[in-house]
From TrEMBL:
Signal sequence segment: 1-19
Keyword Nucleus: no
Keywords noted in UniProt: Signal
PROSITE patterns, alphabetized: PROKAR_LIPOPROTEIN
Protein name: G-D-S-L family lipolytic protein
The keyword Signal is annotated on this UniProt entry: yes
GO molecular function, one term: hydrolase activity, acting on ester bonds
Domain of life: Bacteria
Length: 499
């Protein structure tokens, strides 16, 4: 430090001497000249579901729509001749929609600090987005939250009357060109020169977020028989995406298509631990006694001795609690051997393992009372959690099989239609495993509420996450079409809406 101070007089003389020198002109850096390459961004249309619309924090609202990845892309496209990008904006930043004055969708989530720990809760207020107030289009962002692949082709999917009957989509009903229009017909009518397509996530996701309570419809091509939570048949999925691309490229439009992420990389399935139960010695001893799970364990052992279940299944189903932290929850598992015909008390329950994925919403249910008048009826302890609260390994395998097929289809069609391709599956897997480092040295991760990559619903990206997605699209476009679009700076976007 003394040596540094000793240098100060010399530095002062140096600065004084420089005052008399002629200033040195520093030439401005040569501005980058952006080019569209072989693509034409004059008319850009984005097709997809909630991920395209800008859905975030369990709702669609103005700020989220402004931070959608297609809107970010459109701003880049404007540098090379891209035209206006019209968005069917919601009426406010609450996100809840009404029909006939009655609210039919929830407001967006915010982080509440009123309880023992921060928790997502819907923001207060009544939304002013009335579904029956039709917007005048056309709109370039054709992302429709909740849409499954085959619903992109469904007539009357944008019918206000159909919304009242539960057969149409309220988001699309706000801006569909007619009561009988399809999402794709409205998209195609705009004569796009360039498009993005990121569709099909709900064909798997709705099954997964429901804890696998839906049905795997592989082999069934009749979508009219599907429930919302069912997994779409892969052949039907392939035919729909092929048809959508055929329509979008009919007039020579170029574009980019993205594959689908694995649900196991989403905070919705990675946040709640399988073993969150703390117990004291007395409670653990009671749960292990013959008055509680001891009798269940003994019944299992008896039937295993008769050869009705294997030793492995006996070990899997045996329920044991310990004093202290880290006790696994008790869950129902439909894939266990049905023993109720031999003993009605031996229902299909077991304790969860690290291979089970607890859904995000289970965090506010585990530990509550199934019967308010019975203090021992603790959900996840004395009362096993229903199937909807957990995605078991068998259900994860069903999801993985469908995902693999869907993504093979998407990659094949990208090649067949000569489109740019985004591996969103790898992108979000890397975000979950390693995080994405930004220019300031910070890292965006998939950590719930704090990682900056995902919003409070645990499924949809936060604005900063959408910026990372947008850059993956830009990279794919530049590679395929020899453009040099600059992309976006994720640091320009928040990692979490704070109000």
């Amino acid at each position: 430090m003394k040596k540094f101070y000793a240098l100060l007089p010399f530095l002062g003389l140096f600065l004084i001497a420089c005052e008399d020198d002629t200033p040195i002109d520093t030439p401005d850096p040569t501005p980058v000249e952006y080019t569209s390459g072989t693509a034409d961004f004059t008319k850009y249309v984005a097709v997809g579901s909630s991920l395209t619309a800008g859905y975030s924090d369990n709702a669609l609202f103005i700020a989220g729509q402004e931070a959608s990845f297609p809107n970010m892309l459109a701003q880049n496209f404007a540098l090379v001749g891209g035209g206006d990008f019209e968005i069917p904006f919601m009426a406010d930043n609450l996100g809840g929609m009404t029909l006939g004055g009655n609210q039919i969708t929830e407001n967006r989530l915010i982080l509440s600090f009123l309880g023992e720990s921060p928790a997502p809760v819907p923001v207060s207020g009544t939304g002013t987005t009335e579904v029956s107030n039709k917007l005048t289009g056309p709109f370039n962002n054709m992302g429709v939250p909740g849409t499954k692949s085959y619903e992109l082709l469904a007539p009357e999917y944008g019918s206000v009357t159909g919304v009242a009957m539960g057969t149409a989509n309220p988001y699309f009903a706000r801006f569909s060109s007619s009561e009988t229009a399809t999402v794709i017909s409205d998209a195609a009518a705009q004569g796009a020169t360039f498009f993005t397509l990121w569709a099909g996530s709900n064909d798997i996701l709705l099954y997964a977020v429901g804890g696998g309570t839906g049905v795997n419809q592989a082999g069934n091509l009749d979508a009219t028989t599907y429930a919302r939570e069912d997994i779409t048949d892969p052949t039907l999925f392939a035919g729909v995406i092929d048809g959508v691309l055929g329509t979008l490229t009919a007039n020579g439009a170029k574009g980019v298509i993205a594959n689908l992420p694995n649900v196991t990389d989403l905070p919705y399935f990675t946040t709640v631990p399988h073993n969150p139960i703390p117990l004291d010695e007395a409670t653990a001893a009671f749960l292990n006694s013959a008055e509680a799970y001891g009798a269940y364990n003994a019944g299992l052992a008896q039937l295993q001795g008769l050869g009705l279940i294997t030793e492995d299944e006996l070990a899997q189903r045996t329920i044991t609690f310990n004093a202290g932290e880290g006790n696994p929850v008790v869950i129902m598992d439909e894939d266990l051997t049905d023993l109720t015909g031999f003993n009605p008390a031996l229902i299909n329950m077991r304790q969860a393992t690290a291979d089970d994925l607890m859904v995000l919403t289970s965090r506010s249910f585990i530990g509550t009372l199934a019967d308010p008048n019975n203090p021992t009826s603790i959900n996840g302890v004395a009362v096993p959690l229903a199937d909807k609260w957990v995605l078991t390994p068998e259900e994860q395998d069903i999801v993985e099989t469908a995902l693999t097929s869907y993504n093979q289809t998407i990659a094949g069609l990208a090649a067949a239609y000569d489109l740019a391709f985004v591996d969103a599956n790898a992108l979000l897997s890397n975000l979950n495993t390693n995080g994405v480092q930004l220019g300031d040295g910070s890292v965006v991760t998939a950590e719930f509420a704090t990682g900056g990559g995902f919003s409070l619903d645990g499924v949809h990206p936060a604005p900063r996450g959408y910026a990372i997605v947008a850059n993956a699209f830009v990279e794919a476009i530049n590679t395929k079409y020899n453009s040099n679009l600059p992309g976006v700076n994720p640091l320009d976007y928040t990692g979490l809406y704070i109000d």
